[in-house]
# Entry
Amino acid sequence: GENVEQHPSTLSVQEGDSAVIKCTYSDSASNYFPWYKQELGKGPQLIIDIRSNVGEKKDQRIAVTLNKTAKHFSLHITETQPEDSAVYFCAATASGDYKLSFGAGTTVTVRA
Amino acid sequence: GAGVSQTPSNKVTEKGKYVELRCDPISGHTALYWYRQSLGQGPEFLIYFQGTGAADDSGLPNDRFFAVRPEGSVSTLKIQRTERGDSAVYLCASSSNTGFEMGLHFGNGTRLTVT
# Structure
């Protein structure tokens, strides 16, 4: 099955700086890569996703890049704000596959 | 509209007891999923329903776990003879379809503590 590894496990950044989270996956058949943000006591919320037919996708301050050859993808948050503090999860799945395989999460703390 | 609703939000039970966890998906969503999230980990797949039937229950850890969705809407996850290792947050999610356009919508979960 799919194995997703995520780094770093914790990340502390100064407000206004950028944050980068990296993930690798093992199954070359995977072609859908969502990112979720989870706040304390809440369920994961989809913030951005990318499919294998594109290498980069951007939505305001967040962007995701995908390198299918190397089997890794990254989340970039620019101009971080205190409300960006949360746990972020990457995930991967193959087209038509309903099972998401999640990374272990990255706790992001934005210092004011 | 309303999101995925899970009840109870917290459940404390003694080892060996039976528990039921309920999920109300977003209205009209045909696909429903249960995931389990242990402390400090990402969610892990348990079971997937398409309509009333369990299309894939390969993530259920053993036969103490069972889930139903009799009318294709509300789902109940049932755990028999609970063990301390079952303690986790149980997340339910729904989506309007499966496959490439998945877009899972998660509820806030039920935190199960087995003492």
